[in-house]
Amino acid sequence: MRNRLPKSVVALFDQGLYSATNFVLTLFLAKQLPVADFGMYAGIVMATYLGLSLMGAFFIQPFQVGASKVKNIHQYTSVLCLGVVLFLVVFTLVFLPISRAIYGNTLSLESAFFFAVAYLFQDFFRRIFLALNKVWTVLGIDLLFVFLLLLWFSLPLSTHHLSSVLQGIAWANLLSCSFGMIYIIRHFTKPTGWQVLLRKHCKEGQWLLSVALLQWLASNFFIMVSGLYLGAAALGALRLVQSLYGVLNLFMQAIENYFLPRIAALHHTQPEKGQHLLHQMMGYGGIIFGIILTVFCLFSDEIVGWAAGPHYLPYTFLMPLMALLYVIIFVSYPVRILLRIHVLNRTFFIGYVFSFLASLFSFHFLLGQFGLWGACIGLMMNQLIMFVYWNVELKKHQIVVWK
To answer: What residue ranges of the chain have pLDDT lower than 50?
Structure first.
């Protein structure tokens, strides 16, 4: 079986399994937990995503680029694994007491930190083995994770408290890492060259860290602040609607993974064909987006009620607002692709700077005056600012999106 299936097929299946698992888990918890508890869960997940971005920038991304250039790959993975473990231990020991002093006993912070650390640890193994092209190992990790989740949530009272939900997911994440741990232990090599690798990751990671932090702030600032201003229930509703639109994110990931490399290759050899493929992709994509967004707007009450239950029906007004946001994102996608193809990374970065600054100066007014409407307006404003700036910069470089 392992020799018959191409690794690309296994990788595609695994990505589908991973995305579907997270999507179903979000909808399941939205139904099982009270709205406020689901909002707190959404906030913990978003904070964990920040840790994921920072850890990926310092540990994973330099490894993805440099793994093929290293002679002793087992020594590299051994050093990296020890570094991540040390990072997670220090992170917990430093920030858990601080969080306890700030929040007191309003939430089981030990469960939240356990959830975050286990999530980061599992994601570390997934990305490392994907970089090493060991897709069967990654599939084993994800299948075991699904099995452990099903086992935990089949137990009585497993979803009655947020702390038990966090602990269950954390244990599933941690135990599913056993495939990765066994590999590291079997191939463990004394980390004699860790100083060289540390310098390499510091040199490459410092820029990536700043970019990762800024992108997270630009993308999630309004959502996180809405939880502080409007309460956990509002945050939970906003994240639920975002999760429903996750099917469009899968489509955009397909563009990133499949169309972007093809368009980039054609751009250097046959620019007109590359431009034609970009327009063709946007044409077909527009039809798919149009159908999905129309259905989501016309049947928003039914979709939200089916997905999360009647207690989220007061928030169905978010569905058409989020649809408008995704229209802006889709229209700006050719601009993003051309920036990537022409390696205009500085322009890409400055766009996120302007977006975050706009969020910083407007969130108090928008959330205070308009509530969740203001949060959606802020998200749309961020996308429009980046779109306009990136378009201006492309024109300066005489790069035309549409001919």
So the answer is: none
pLDDT of residue 15: 78
Q: So what's the pLDDT on residue 171?
A: 94
pLDDT of residue 170: 94
Predicted pLDDT of residue 68: 63
Q: Quick one: 168 exposed, middle or buried, by C-beta within 10 A (0-12, 13-18, 19+)?
A: buried
Tens-digit pLDDT profile for residues 307-362: 888 888 899 999 999 999 999 988 888 888 777 777 677 888 888 899 999 998 99
Among residues 243, 227, 245, 266, the alpha carbon closest in space to that of 371 is found at: 227
Distance CA 355, CA 46 (A): 19
Phi and psi at 299, nearest 5°, equal: -120, 35
Query: Are residues 281 and 259 in contact, defined by beta-carbon separation less than 8 angstroms?
Result: yes
Q: Which pTM does this prediction carry?
A: 0.81
**Using CA atoms, how far apart are residues 159 and 131, in angstroms rounded to an integer?**
35
Handedness of CA 148, 235, 302, 332 (dihedral sign): negative
